[in-house]
What we know:
Elements: E1 2-5, H1 10-19, E2 23-28, H2 34-48, E3 51-56, H3 86-98, E4 105-107, H4 122-134, E5 140-142, H5 150-157, H6 161-164, H7 181-193
Parallel strand pairs: 1-2, 1-4, 2-3, 4-5
Helix pairs in contact: 1-5
Amino acid sequence: MRALLLSGGMDSVAIAYWQRPEVAVTIDYGQRPAAGEIRAASVVAGELGIRHLVLRLDQLGLLGSGDLAGAPKLDIAPKPEWWPFRNQLLVTVAAGAVLPLGARKLLIGALRTDGHHVDGRREFVEALSCVLQMQEGNMSLDAPAIDLDGVELIRKSQIPMSLLAWSHSCHKAEHACGECGGCRKHYRTFEALGELPY
């Protein structure tokens, strides 16, 4: 069985449509846009008939920095939305949630263009997969779009624009702020596809 860490953003939504995992996990870890992400992920999972788990770990918000946490970014942050060890944390929590359901592969939405974050790189995905496989359950981690950018992923997935329009990419709020890096990426991707999302 395959599971997907479904943030509700464009990339994970396109992967949900393309890969059709049996279960998806969305995590509220104290990030400001959590409500919008959960809403988007719930709609998409429902439309695709994917079992959807929502985990609420909001005390983890105390560990955050930058745009996602509504806190000053750390000096070592490569981008304003950087949150220390976020993907490592979310993968571990999601893997723990889906292992009892029979999942043995967890998918994440890392792209070729996410390399400015160490935890968006192929070597990070491979290393974390080795850690998961080393433990009981023999879970593996896969980033099926790691060789693609956002536009290539959406084209490859063939996701209908009407479903993709539900995605929520804002780093700062429940509703798109239009100014953060996530919103700018969202709009640039739709523009490159020759589509208007709304």
